[in-house]
């Protein structure tokens, strides 16, 4: 595998209201749109040649803003959609007893993980266009997809997730016995503002 970049969508209406979005097609807020523009600035010069996004409106709109700034098209893959939370969608995040619970009418963690991983594997294997520079692939999706990537790449499950529109760089091990690394893309301008409630 090669290095790649990951970007969670900007603040959505569900994030703002601190409710579980899941499969609900929540839109970006004005803050979310501004966060996406900040992310585009942070990602300028990263050598991105390919952008693959979840088709859900909050992720797709974020990807479109970044892609517009970089002059690139956006590919979508339904497998990058957020975990389906069934009857819990629209309820307060704070009321959810356990991330690993099996929601009525939704996906278990295991089913979601396997579904997302089945999609991420070929995307990562395909990578960027030939002769592209390091981290030339950008995935724009959701906190749940970030959790799957961290878990499957041996970085450990992260309950807290990742902030809205904060670009993250995944770097593969440089030698046998070493692990993947993940870190924010650092630029001189302020990091994108994030919401405290991560769904």
Structural class: alpha/beta
Number of helices: 5
Mean pLDDT equals 88
Number of beta-strand segments: 6
Amount of beta strand:
5-15%
Give a brief rundown of this model:
This protein is of the alpha/beta class and 199 residues long. The chain has helices at residues 13-17, 30-43, 57-70, 109-126, 143-152, and strands spanning 4-8, 50-53, 75-76, 137-141, 168-171, 181-184. The chain is 31% helix and 12% strand.
Descriptive overview:
This protein is α/β, with parallel strands linked by helices and 199 residues long. Helices cover 31% and strands 12% of the residues. It has 5 helices and 6 strands; from the N terminus they run E-H-H-E-H-E-H-E-H-E-E. Helix 3 (57-70) links the parallel strand 2 and strand 3 (75-76).
State the main characteristics:
single chain, 199 residues, alpha/beta, 5 helices, 31% helix, globular, disordered C terminus
């Amino acid at each position: 595998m090669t290095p790649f970049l990951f970007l969670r969508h900007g603040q959505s209406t569900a994030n703002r209201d601190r409710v579980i979005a899941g499969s609900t097609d929540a839109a970006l807020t004005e803050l979310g749109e501004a966060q996406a523009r900040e992310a585009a600035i942070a990602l300028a010069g990263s050598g991105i040649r390919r952008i693959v996004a979840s088709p859900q409106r909050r992720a797709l709109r974020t990807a479109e803003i970044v892609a517009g700034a970089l002059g690139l098209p956006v590919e979508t893959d339904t497998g990058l959609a957020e975990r389906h939370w069934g009857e819990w969608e629209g309820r307060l995040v704070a009321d959810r007893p356990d991330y690993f619970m099996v929601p009525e009418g939704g996906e278990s963690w295991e089913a979601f993980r396997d579904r997302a991983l089945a999609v991420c594997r070929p995307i990562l294997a395909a990578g960027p266009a030939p002769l592209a520079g390091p981290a030339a692939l950008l995935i724009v999706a959701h906190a749940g997809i970030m959790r799957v990537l961290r878990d499957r790449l041996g970085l450990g499950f992260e309950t807290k997730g990742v902030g809205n529109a904060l670009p993250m760089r995944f770097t593969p091990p440089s030698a046998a016995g070493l692990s993947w690394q993940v870190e924010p893309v650092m630029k001189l301008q302020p990091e994108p503002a994030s919401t405290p409630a991560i769904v």
